[in-house]
Each structure stands twice: as structure tokens, then as C-alpha cells.
């Protein structure tokens, strides 16, 4: 029996239609828009001014606080502007705009294709290098990786879990990395294990990716024996941190707790690859694999895209936006963000552009709740979405808190499964935000 | 520029709908409907047609002219209620009984509370109980399907097995004597040769419907299974104590609409608990009350009353029995 | 039979008596002394419990008044000066007269003025839409049109016009309780002085983008050109972040700015129609002088 998480979950059609498209290198655009806010936490401080010459890999934004990350230029050229530029939701965010000239990399970056296996740096140096290179979680939340690798005092990590679940339908960027660069991913894991001082690692992969499981197993059976491949039964949201820890180790992160409370640190496959490149090749994070997919597209792609490329440019490269496209999503269909501004640029954690047609995505009319309880059964956190939705609409904050709205991981299972098409998560999300704000404003004991 | 659609995540839906669920329930009821039509012929068809038409028509009229909103009869929930009412009537019942049942179920129980999703009681159960109390003669004038090949032509009227037992016991007979006298065997109960409502006629048809509902994941097995297990355990204990006074567990499971009630009416979404633990408590409650009414109550049959009583505490169960949450609560500031 | 009857009556009577004594003692022991003035003041309140005064409801307001024995900073916007005078008389403390206020929607982004650039498909809630993105038009300051203000208003005084998708305030019903101001995630609604004969002048725009961008998003946007600021003889208009604002305490409703505004972003309401525009009923056309509400 394949392992999976213990409660809830749904089974969307996985639609991994781009799984067999090998990673292609995306051509450099003429202009790059590099956001200073590509991570959770304080936006980075721009280090360059209009007219400055920059090289590929040069730091152009400095981390502005403990939870923040450095930003590096993904191209060489001249800074055209440092100004607010609209992100994918149309909100202005400070960007460094660079006119691309050639592709001259920083000399310190090792550009040879050799795999560097020997880890020479010590734990503290590894964490410093990861912070210097601006590595953030590639799973979506963009949490600065060096913070996650530095457990708070009194907490000790026991395992590292590499998240290869990629449970979101359509996405294949992690899959391609695992198939094409399995050793680099495992080296990244080994580096992070050294930094954390743990001796046991796992890599959880859903069983709809047999090629990735096999590629990893080949290596873990010989050279990387400290890492165990855990095939997981396909179920969404397996890639949620709490669900993955439950599936792999059976441990349950306590309510309001962090993974480290169970002695586990979870890192995404893409992050692991970026860590390898940063520590072994001294290469900052300025590019990532992106899946460009959709049934309406003539061809499916996995591109290695430099950070700051505009969505327009990517879509133009794949032949333009087909006429029947109704929604473009950055990320997966369950948790991704709908793009309203196509001139926005990719960020470090951009994992995909998904094009959906109207019949695939348009919401259907909401009808009365029939109290079927399917949302309750689907909730991976054991919450009662039907009730949270009602309480949130009624503005009953105390009751929302009593019903643990703060535990909601916003995975969307409830809304996905609701036969009455009730927009449960819309209201739960705002209710959760309100409750979290109230809880934070309370004096700490 | 083309206008892109923007909405919060999730951007896809699992394609389930109220209509699909109701359609599945109707399909699950199809074997029982077919059996009813097979045994009782025209009268069963007439009852089904009148009952469904009355339920759907009433819902449409009330929504359109009293609520003044777009009628939602296309969700098929009224059809399910109609079919269930018909299957709960004696096959010989006159057509107007079905109409009165529909008025009670849709007009009084479903619509006064606000329509689908808001009723506290299962409409079909209320209709059955209401009719049983108001028209006891018609409602207990059951037809015994006499032959596999002569549907309903010269049906013999009689009482249900449970009523026969109650009567016999009152006359001082033992269970064994009664069963022998009326030629009641399990094979007959399974394959529809005993008296009862149209839907109770064949246990096998109901079980086929149950399996279909489980396979299609329309319902979860918790409620029917706990009801049946509770009834089996409780009647088993009584039966072991005194087999001459109390009927055995299998007899109790196969008769008196227990299967129809537990599979199709106790599992009604609106009036059953949401959390698994609540479902189990609800099921046990129905089982216990059913057995108590059957053994010690005035009515030979208790499933409907039991479901009705447990319906009324479902809001409480939903309020106090919460699903198991993920992860332990830790103290936090 | 007789004994049973007598027995029943005796038992019930004794039981009733005992319980009555218990109730009496409990009521005595847990009696809460309350100033009767609170009840009196509460009775004079409008009873809307809208929270417009900043307290949880009318009772809470009355309690606060009696407790502090002062009306500093306490004002019931629904009851207005009339109610506050009664409260002040009951309490025997001075009150501060306040000019009546009304909610004003400062967005001119009707469907005609402001083209939709995306199709919003989420829940009909401004708040949810606002957390998702800037809005379904190119103006990210403007009204989202989902009617959170309408839902918040318990007096039925503000309604989204289905044609313009901009809320409109019913001045007679508006009590200036401020519920809509709090509900609007874009901060478009402002409580402004009702003005003499309900006549007032205000900038019906919140767009802080540079002129060109604002104009492109909405034909009736304030472009921050400062013409109004220069024109105003009373110094009531200030332009900050490319957006003009009229201070209603300084404004003398001379309407010079209205004529000056190149985009028609400044609205003057409840003035008698100019001789040329004969029809008395306000039209929906977005002309500058047209009364908007």
C-alpha cells in the first residue's frame, strides 16, 4: 500500500500533458523586469541605478531583514529604470528594468557542465551561501530557504524531506528536473542535510511519476543511500508541507505549528536544485524551470526561464495566446494566481503558465448548500468548510477562530468538490485573514 | 486586448453537481422501482408517476409563485422525494394518498423551511409518518406479491411480517409458530414475496442500489452500516434471551423498511450529520429507537419514527460532534 | 382518589413555594444596580444599533454617556443634533452641535467612463476582489462595483446602480453612520458635510496615478492638473499624489472649480439646473455639472 496523507484530499485529473517535453532553454528577451519582491517578507533594497552596467548573476537587490532575500540580475546589460512596475495582479511593485546586452556572467560562477559531488563547505558556510545567492522556496510560497534551514533555538531537525509530490495538475517542472537532473537534486538534498546536521533524508514522489521514482531510486540505491525514495499514492494536496510530512513520516504538525515542531524540514525539488547550483557552482538563483501548458496550446513546453522575463514574451514564443483562452494562471489550477496583467514578469518561484479555456475554468452558478458534507470529507485539515464559509459571510470572527479557520491551508479541495458550486474558499480566505489579524494584534503572553 | 477571466483559486472544479448526485440516487432506486412495477404492475407505475409529478409540480409552483424566484426543480431533488414517497406507500394505495404525501413532504417540510438544504426532517419520511398516522387503514393494507408472473393481478392483501408478528404475539403465539403459520422465510423477504410497501418488497434490489451509491461515492457506508449493525446486535441480544417472544436479527433487518430507510432515507444529506463520528452516533440512535419501537411500541414498525427522531438532533450533532482535526492543538499565545 | 388529589396539590404547592423562595433569594443576591438614566437615554436613541457612534450599539452608547457624564467625542450620527440635545438635557452636560453629514461616493468610473479590462469571476464581494487584484478595470483606485457598501448599509441608503456599476447614495435615508466607509476596501466613500440645502462640491475620483495613466483608465478621472487648485479662491483644494481633494470645511460651494475641471471629475450636487438644461430630473450622462446622486 502506497503511503499518502491521512485525511481528506481530492483526486483532480492530473493532466500532466507536458510531462514528456524536455527542458528547453528560453531565449533571452530584450528587456528584463526584475521584481524586488520575489519572496515572502520584506522587499529587497535595489542596489543599482539607472545607467548602471550589470552582469548576469550580479546582486542588484539586497535582503532587507531576516525574512527577505537577495535578488540577482538574470541578464547582463544596462539598467534602464528602477521604478514601480505592475505585477501579475496589476499592483505596482519596485522593479529593476534592464536592457539586455549579450550574456556576460559573473566570473565567480562555475559554468562548466560537470557535476560537483564533493561538498567542501561547512554547515554555517552553506547557509550563508544560500542566503547570499537569494535562494527561496520554489514550491510557491517563496519562503527564504536560509531561514528554513536555520531552526529556531530549542528546535532540532531530524529529517529532511524533498517535496517531489508535484500534486497540482498540469505542472511538470519538478518532474522534468527529477528526470533530467536527479543527481543534482539529490546533491542539493545532501547539502541541506549537512547544513541541518541530519543524517536521514526522504524524497516523496507521487506514483503518477514512475520515471522520476525510478531515476531517483537508481541513485539512492548506490551513491545516495542516506536518502530514501518514498512513492506516494496520488492525491491532492500531497505537496502541502503538513500533508507531505504526514504521508512520509506519519507525524502530524500540530495546529498553528511549523514542520520543525515535528523535527522535519521540507524543501521543494526546485529549491534543492537551486541549492546545489548555489553551493557547488556559486550560481545565484536567477532562473527556473517553468511549464507552459494548456490543452488549447499546440505544443507543451518546459522552459528554463530567466527571472524577469515577461509573460507576454513567453506566450509570444509559444505562438501567441490562442483565441479560446479565457484564463491564464501563474502556478497550478488549484492554488495558482490568475494573471490579469500579461506584461508582468516572472519571479524566482514562477513554476508555470497555464492556459485554460472558458469551459475548463468558468465558475458555475452557485446553488443552495445541500449539506452533503463532501467539503468536510475533502478537507485535509479536518475543518468544516461549509460552516467556515457561513461564519465568514456573517462576520462571526470568534466562532471562526473556535473552528480553527487559521489551520486552513487554502488548498481549495472544498471548493473543488462542492456539488453546489459554492465559492467556499473565497470567503474562508478572507475570514482567515481577519482572524489571523485579530490573533496577531492580541498582546502576547 | 482580450478580456481575461480573473478569479481566486481554485480555478478548476471537480464537476460534481447536485443534479448529478440526485440522478445517481434515482438510478440507485431504479432496481426497487423495477421490482415494484414488476410485482404490482400498473398501480405501482401510477403511484410513482403521481407522486413524482406532485412533488416536482408543487416545488415548481411554490418556488415560482410564492418565493418568486427561479425554480430549481432541475436539480432533481423533488424527483427523489417523489420516488421515495411512492416506494413508501402500499402498492394498493389510492393516487390521492401520494398527492397528500407530496403536499406534506414538499409543501410543508421542504419549502416552509426554505427549500433544499434547509429542511430539518427528511420530507419523504415525514410524508410516510404523516400518512401512517392519518390514514392507518389504507397505509397498513399491504399487498402480498403472490406470484412472479402475475404482477398485481390477483394480489392478496394482508399485513406486513412485523404486523403479523405483533398480532400473533398479542394472541399468545410464539415467533416460530407465527412464522410457520404465515409461511415467512428469508428467501421470500430477500426476493420480494412478503407484504409491505412498494419499496420494501425486495431487499436484494435495495442492496443493489446501496452498492451503486457506494461505488459512485454518493454516500458513505457509515450510516446504513451502523443502523443495521445496531439493530442486529440489539435484536440478537433479545432473541438470545427469549427466542419465543423476540424475532431474530436477520428477520428484523429484512423486514419493515429497515433497508429502505437506512440506505435511502437516513442517508439524506440535508438531514444527516456531516462528520463521521456524528454519522455513527446518528446510526446507532436510529437502530436503538427502531428496535425499541418494534419490540415495545404500539406500532409494529419503527424505522420511520426512529429516523424522524434522530433527524431532529442532527443540528446538535453537527454542532457538538466535530470532525477529527489535523494535528494536535498546542498552546499558543 | 381523594387522597391522591390532595397529595398532588400539596406537593405541587410546596414545590412552587420553595422554588419561589429560591428565585427570590437569587434575584436579591445577584441584583445588578444600574443607573435608571441608562434606560432613559437608551429610549431616546434611534435604536438602529448601527455602531455609527463607535460603540457596540445604542445601549453601549447610553452606558458610556452615563458612565463618563460627558458627551465629549460622543455623537449619534443617526439621531443627529435633535437626539443629542435630548441626551444632553437628560445628562445635564453640554453637547457639541455637529453639521449633518452624508456619505459621498468618490468614483466616477461608470461603465461608460471606464472600460473593463478583465472579467471578474470570483465571489461578488469587493473585499475578495480587492485582495485578488487591482480590479477589473485599468484603474486600481476605483469602485469595484460588487456592492460591499450596499450590504453593509442597514438603512438601504446606498445601492449599486446596475447600469453604471457605481453605488449611489439616497441622501434622505443616509444617516452617516459610516458603515459603508468601513466596508469599502478602496476607501472611496467619505462622510462629507451635507452642505447648505444639501448642496456640495467634491472630487469624484480617487486615482493617484499620473495624469496620462489615469486618463487612459477612465475618461472622467482626476488627472492632478491643479487647475482647480489654482482657481479656488478659498484655498479649499489641495492636490497630492496627482489627486485633488476639496476640504468641505473651507469650500464655499462657488463651483468655479467645477467649470475648470477638464475631465469633469469634480461634481456639484443639488444645485438648481442651469437654464439650458431644462429637465429637472438628473440624467445619467457624466457631464460635470450633472447632479450625480
Structure report:
The complex is a heterotrimer of chains A (445), B (333) and C (293). Chain A is an alpha/beta fold. Chain A is 28% helix and 20% strand. Chain A folds into 3 domains: 23-109 and 294-360, no CATH class; 123-281, NADH-ubiquinone oxidoreductase 51kDa subunit (Rossmann fold), CATH 3.40.50; 374-440, no CATH class. Chain A contains 14 helices and 17 strands. In chain A, the strands form 4 sheets. Chain A has a 6-stranded mixed β-sheet with strand order 1-14-13-17-15-16, sandwiched between helices. In chain A, a hairpin with a 5-residue loop joins strand 7 (77-86) and strand 8 (92-100). Chain A is globular, with a radius of gyration of 21 Å. Chain B is mainly alpha-helical. Chain B is built from 15 helices and 3 strands. Chain B has a two-stranded antiparallel sheet with strand order 2-3. The radius of gyration of chain B is 21 Å and the shape is globular. Chain C is of the alpha+beta class. Chain C folds into 2 domains: 36-91, 3-methyladenine DNA Glycosylase II, Chain A, domain 3 (Orthogonal Bundle), CATH 1.10.15; 101-269, Alpha-Beta Plaits (2-Layer Sandwich). Chain C has helices spanning 2-29, 36-44, 58-68, 80-91, 126-132, 148-152, 179-183, 211-217, 227-231, 256-260; strands spanning 101-105, 118-120, 158-160, 167-169, 189-193, 200-203, 237-240, 243-246, 266-269. Chain C has a two-stranded antiparallel sheet with strand order 1-5. In chain C, a hairpin with a 6-residue loop joins strand 3 (158-160) and strand 4 (167-169). Chain C is elongated and about 100 Å long. The chains are: A alpha/beta (445), B mainly alpha (333), C alpha+beta (293). Chains in contact: A-B, A-C, B-C. At the A-B interface, strand 15, strand 16, helix 9, helix 10 and helix 13 of A face strand 1 and helix 1 of B.
Amino acid at each position: 500500500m502506497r503511503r499518502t496523507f491521512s485525511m481528506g484530499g481530492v483526486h483532480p485529473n492530473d493532466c500532466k500533458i507536458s510531462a514528456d517535453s524536455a527542458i528547453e532553454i528560453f531565449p533571452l528577451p530584450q528587456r528584463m523586469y526584475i521584481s524586488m519582491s520575489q519572496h515572502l517578507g520584506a522587499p529587497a533594497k535595489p542596489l543599482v541605478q539607472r545607467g548602471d552596467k550589470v552582469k548576469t548573476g550580479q546582486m542588484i537587490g539586497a535582503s532587507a531583514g531576516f525574512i527577505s532575500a537577495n535578488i540577482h540580475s538574470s541578464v547582463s546589460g544596462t539598467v534602464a529604470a528602477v521604478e514601480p512596475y505592475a505585477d501579475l495582479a496589476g499592483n505596482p511593485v519596485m522593479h529593476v528594468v534592464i536592457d539586455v546586452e549579450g550574456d556576460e556572467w559573473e566570473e565567480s560562477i562555475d559554468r562548466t557542465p560537470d557535476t560537483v559531488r564533493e561538498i567542501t563547505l561547512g554547515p554555517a558556510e552553506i547557509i550563508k551561501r544560500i542566503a547570499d545567492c537569494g535562494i527561496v522556496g520554489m514550491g510557491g510560497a517563496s519562503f527564504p530557504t536560509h531561514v528554513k534551514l536555520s531552526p529556531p533555538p530549542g528546535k532540532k531537525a531530524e529529517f529532511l524531506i524533498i517535496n517531489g509530490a508535484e500534486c497540482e495538475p498540469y505542472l511538470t517542472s519538478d518532474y522534468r528536473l527529477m528526470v533530467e537532473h536527479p543527481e543534482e537534486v539529490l546533491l542539493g538534498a545532501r547539502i541541506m542535510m549537512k547544513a541541518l546536521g541530519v543524517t536521514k533524508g526522504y524524497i516523496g514522489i507521487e506514483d503518477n511519476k514512475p520515471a522520476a521514482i525510478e531515476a531517483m531510486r537508481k541513485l539512492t540505491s548506490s551513491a545516495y543511500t542516506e536518502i530514501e525514495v518514498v512513492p506516494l499514492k496520488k492525491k491532492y494536496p500531497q505537496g502541502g508541507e503538513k500533508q507531505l510530512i504526514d504521508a512520509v513520516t506519519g507525524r502530524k504538525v500540530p495546529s498553528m505549528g511549523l514542520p520543525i515542531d515535528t523535527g522535519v524540514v521540507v524543501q521543494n525539488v526546485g529549491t534543492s536544485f537551486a541549492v546545489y547550483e548555489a553551493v557547488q557552482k556559486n550560481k545565484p538563483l536567477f532562473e527556473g524551470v517553468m511549464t507552459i501548458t494548456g490543452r488549447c496550446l499546440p505544443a507543451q513546453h518546459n522552459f528554463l526561464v530567466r527571472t524577469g522575463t515577461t509573460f507576454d514574451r513567453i506566450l509570444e514564443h509559444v505562438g501567441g495566446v490562442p483565441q479560446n483562452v479565457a484564463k491564464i494562471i501563474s502556478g497550478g489550477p488549484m492554488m495558482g494566481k490568475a494573471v490579469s496583467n500579461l506584461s508582468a514578469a516572472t519571479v524566482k518561484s514562477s513554476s508555470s503558465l497555464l492556459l485554460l479555456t472558458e469551459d475548463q475554468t468558468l465558475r458555475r452558478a452557485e446553488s443552495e448548500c445541500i449539506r452533503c458534507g463532501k467539503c468536510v470529507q475533502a478537507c485535509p485539515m479536518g475543518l468544516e468548510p461549509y460552516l467556515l464559509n457561513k461564519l465568514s459571510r456573517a462576520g462571526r470572527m470568534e466562532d471562526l477562530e473556535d473552528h480553527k479557520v487559521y489551520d486552513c491551508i487554502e488548498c481549495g479541495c472544498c471548493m473543488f468538490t462542492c456539488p453546489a458550486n459554492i465559492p467556499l474558499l473565497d470567503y474562508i480566505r478572507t475570514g482567515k485573514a481577519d482572524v489571523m489579524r485579530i490573533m496577531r494584534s492580541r498582546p502576547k503572553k | 486586448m482580450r478580456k481575461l477571466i480573473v478569479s481566486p483559486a481554485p480555478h478548476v472544479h471537480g464537476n460534481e453537481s447536485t443534479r448529478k448526485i440526485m440522478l445517481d440516487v434515482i438510478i440507485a432506486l431504479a432496481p426497487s422501482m423495477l421490482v415494484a412495477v414488476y410485482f404490482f404492475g400498473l398501480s405501482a407505475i401510477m403511484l410513482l408517476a403521481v407522486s413524482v409529478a406532485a412533488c416536482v409540480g408543487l416545488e415548481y409552483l411554490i418556488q415560482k409563485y410564492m418565493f418568486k424566484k427561479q425554480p430549481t426543480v432541475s436539480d432533481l431533488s423533488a424527483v427523489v422525494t417523489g420516488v421515495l414517497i411512492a416506494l413508501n406507500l402500499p402498492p394498493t394505495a389510492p393516487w390521492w394518498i401520494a398527492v397528500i404525501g407530496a403536499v406534506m413532504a414538499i409543501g410543508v417540510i421542504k419549502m416552509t423551511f426554505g427549500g433544499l438544504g434547509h429542511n430539518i426532517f427528511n420530507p419523504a419520511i415525514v410524508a410516510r409518518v404523516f400518512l401512517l398516522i392519518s390514514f392507518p387503514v389504507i397505509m397498513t393494507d399491504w399487498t402480498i406479491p403472490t406470484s412472479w408472473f402475475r404482477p398485481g393481478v390477483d394480489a392478496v392483501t394482508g399485513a406486513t411480517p412485523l404486523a403479523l408478528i405483533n398480532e400473533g404475539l398479542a394472541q399468545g403465539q410464539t415467533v416460530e409458530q407465527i412464522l410457520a403459520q404465515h409461511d415467512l422465510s428469508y428467501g421470500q423477504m430477500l426476493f420480494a414475496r412478503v407484504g409491505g410497501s412498494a419499496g420494501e418488497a425486495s431487499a436484494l434490489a435495495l442492496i443493489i442500489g446501496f452498492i451503486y451509491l457506494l461505488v459512485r461515492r454518493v454516500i458513505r457506508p457509515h450510516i446504513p452500516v451502523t443502523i443495521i449493525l445496531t439493530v442486529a446486535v440489539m435484536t440478537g441480544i433479545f432473541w438470545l434471551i427469549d427466542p419465543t417472544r423476540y424475532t431474530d436479527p436477520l428477520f428484523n433487518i429484512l423486514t419493515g423498511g429497515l433497508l429502505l430507510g437506512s440506505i435511502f432515507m437516513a442517508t439524506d444529506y440535508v438531514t444527516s450529520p456531516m462528520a463521521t463520528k456524528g454519522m455513527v452516533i446518528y446510526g446507532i440512535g436510529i437502530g436503538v429507537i427502531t428496535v425499541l419501537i418494534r419490540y415495545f411500541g404500539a406500532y409494529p414498525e419503527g424505522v420511520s419514527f426512529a429516523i424522524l427522531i434522530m433527524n431532529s438532533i442532527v443540528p446538535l450533532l453537527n454542532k457538538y460532534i466535530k470532525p477529527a482535526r489535523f494535528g494536535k492543538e498546542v498552546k499558543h499565545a | 382518589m381523594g387522597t391522591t388529589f390532595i397529595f398532588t396539590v400539596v406537593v405541587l404547592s410546596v414545590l412552587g413555594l420553595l422554588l419561589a423562595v429560591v428565585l427570590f433569594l437569587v434575584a436579591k443576591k445577584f441584583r445588578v444596580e444600574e443607573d435608571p438614566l441608562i434606560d432613559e437615554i437608551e429610549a431616546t436613541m434611534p435604536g438602529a444599533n448601527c455602531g455609527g457612534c463607535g460603540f457596540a450599539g445604542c445601549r453601549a452608547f447610553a452606558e458610556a454617556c452615563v458612565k463618563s457624564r460627558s458627551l465629549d467625542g460622543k455623537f449619534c450620527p443617526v439621531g443627529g443634533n435633535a437626539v443629542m440635545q435630548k441626551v444632553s438635557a437628560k445628562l445635564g452636560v453640554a453637547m457639541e452641535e455637529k453639521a449633518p453629514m452624508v456619505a459621498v461616493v468618490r468614483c466616477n468610473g461608470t461603465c461608460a467612463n471606464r472600460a473593463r479590462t478583465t472579467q471578474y469571476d470570483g465571489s461578488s464581494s469587493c473585499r475578495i476582489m480587492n485582495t485578488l487584484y487591482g480590479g477589473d478595470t485599468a484603474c486600481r483606485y476605483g469602485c469595484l462595483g460588487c456592492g460591499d457598501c450596499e450590504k453593509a448599509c442597514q438603512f438601504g441608503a446606498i445601492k449599486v446602480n446596475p447600469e453604471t456599476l457605481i453605488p449611489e447614495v439616497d441622501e434622505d435615508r443616509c444617516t452617516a453612520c459610516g458603515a459603508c466607509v468601513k466596508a469599502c476596501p478602496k476607501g472611496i466613500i467619505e462622510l462629507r458635510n451635507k452642505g447648505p440645502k444639501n448642496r456640495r462640491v467634491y472630487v469624484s475620483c480617487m486615482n493617484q496615478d499620473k495624469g496620462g495613466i489615469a486618463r487612459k483608465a477612465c475618461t472622467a478621472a482626476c488627472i492632478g492638473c491643479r487647475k482647480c487648485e489654482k482657481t479656488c479662491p478659498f484655498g479649499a483644494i489641495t492636490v497630492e499624489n496627482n489627486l485633488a481633494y476639496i476640504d468641505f470645511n473651507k469650500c464655499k460651494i462657488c463651483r468655479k472649480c467645477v467649470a475648470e475641471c477638464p475631465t469633469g471629475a469634480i461634481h456639484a450636487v443639488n444645485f438648481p439646473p442651469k437654464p439650458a438644461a431644462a429637465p429637472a430630473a438628473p440624467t445619467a450622462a457624466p457631464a460635470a455639472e450633472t447632479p450625480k446622486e
